[in-house]
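[SOLVED] Predicted holo structure with LXEULUCI

Edit: marking solved, answer below. Original request kept for reference. I posted the sequence and ligand SMILES and asked for the 3D complex as structure tokens.
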Amino acid sequence: MAELLFFCGTMDSGKSTLALQMEHNHRARGRKGVLFSSHDRAGESMISSRLGLRTRAVEVHPDTDFWSEVTGRLTQGGRVDYLICDEAQFYTAGQIDQLARIADDMDIDVFAFGITSDFKTRLFPGSQRLVELADRIQVLQVEALCWCGKRATHNARIVDGTMVVEGDQMVVGDVEAAADPDTAVEMPRSAGAAEPVTEYETLCRRHHMRRQTSRASNALVGNELPLPFEPAPETEPATL
Ligand SMILES: Nc1ncnc2c1ncn2[C@@H]1O[C@H](COP(=O)(O)OP(=O)(O)O)[C@@H](O)[C@H]1O
Ligand SMILES: Cc1cn([C@H]2C[C@H](O)[C@@H](COP(=O)(O)O)O2)c(=O)[nH]c1=O
């Protein structure tokens, strides 16, 4: 029986690397797969890993019909044993339904990879549907880390050096500049640049909720770290 598997993690946790490794291992054993991705950082129709590997893939648009993609190949005499679906957070809920149907009715394995939640900590529609439908959900073993050393569980968006919690759900970008301690204090907005610079940083929940990025932490030393914010308790007016 084929399965729909969802491999998830924060940004920079090795999802695309694993996608390319799985493709390699299956292909090496004579199986034939179709690779899909959507809005990869390296450009259209691509799966790219920060380890330097990249390969061609079919670009998924909101109107892409996976069922037709697969039946089209099969009716032309092609073979399809599995699908590799990267950046699956950007797929629509309906497309995830199609992937589940491909696993069940065509007996084709579907390996989907994506981040679960956005910079506002909300589920992406594609990831939500994968959580609802997948036979198995596997969280990536190589943990991305927060600047404090704890496991990173959340993705922060940083615009011109400041963590933001408002904006469009989808803005393609990378983590590297934000995580690099050499570039962490000053934002690299070039003089006269019209467009704001958007980057991402992986954080633990605590620092995501406090909006403390590596830049913010660099500005603080030792015991200057802020205490958790708790509203002051309401006090009754003193009576004599
Ligand atoms: N220079 C490097 N040396 C070793 N490992 C690296 C290097 N750069 C990136 N990586 C590894 O690659 C991972 C990111 O892989 P990638 O597949 O691009 O992530 P994702 O698709 O989850 O965003 C990092 O978490 C790290 O483990
Ligand atoms: C958190 C978050 C991320 N994105 C974008 C940024 C990247 O282009 C991809 C994630 O790619 P990765 O291979 O997992 O690093 O998603 C976004 O559009 N909105 C967000 O909230």
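OP edit: Residues 183-188 have pLDDT under 50 and may be disordered. Thanks to everyone who chimed in.
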